[in-house]
Amino acid sequence: MRSLRSFWPIGRVMDLFSSQAAVDMNGPIATYVKEAIAQDKVVIFSKTYCPYCKLAKEVFDKIKSKYTCIELDSRNDADSIQNVLGEITGARTVPRVFVNGVCIGGGSDVKSLHEKGELEKLLA
């Protein structure tokens, strides 16, 4: 019996498992993400079980800054939202934290900005 490798080059086999469909940046999911980011001063795309997401939210709670949190693990379209975030920010990971419509990074970035006193300046 011939293996799958003998029929397709290994790169093509890997593409079957790792390729990602193109993201429609004008579709309803992208529109939702863009509107959510524009709607509030601070928006956090998060997952409830993620320690870095918890870290980011704790920083904003500590400085008593209001934020909108979109918990992706409670949504059916989470993967699509993460694909859109990947197009917008260059990363699909959570948290993706936006201040005034600009992605400032993830949990460690938020903590670092806070420790340097720069987060409060962004929020002013």
Could you name the ranges where pLDDT drops below 50 across 5 or more consecutive residues? 1-19
* Lateral arrangement of strands in the main beta sheet: 2-1-3-4
* Content-based structural category: alpha+beta
Radius of gyration: 18 Å
From the spread of the alpha carbons, the general shape counts as: globular
Give a brief rundown of this model.
By secondary structure, this protein is of the alpha+beta class.
Task: Write up what this structure looks like.
The protein is an alpha+beta fold and 124 residues long. It is 52% helix and 14% strand. It contains seven helices and four strands. It has helices at residues 4-7, 10-18, 28-39, 51-62, 78-89, 107-115, 118-123, and strands at residues 42-46, 68-71, 96-99, 102-105. Helix 4 (51-62) links the parallel strand 1 (42-46) and strand 2 (68-71). Helix 4 (51-62) packs parallel to helix 6. Residues 1-19 have low confidence and may be disordered.
Task: Please give a handful of descriptors for the protein shown.
single chain; about 120 residues; alpha+beta
Secondary structure elements and their pairing?
Elements: H1 4-7, H2 10-18, H3 28-39, E1 42-46, H4 51-62, E2 68-71, H5 78-89, E3 96-99, E4 102-105, H6 107-115, H7 118-123
Parallel strand pairs: 1-2
Antiparallel strand pairs: 1-3, 3-4
Helix pairs in contact: 4-6
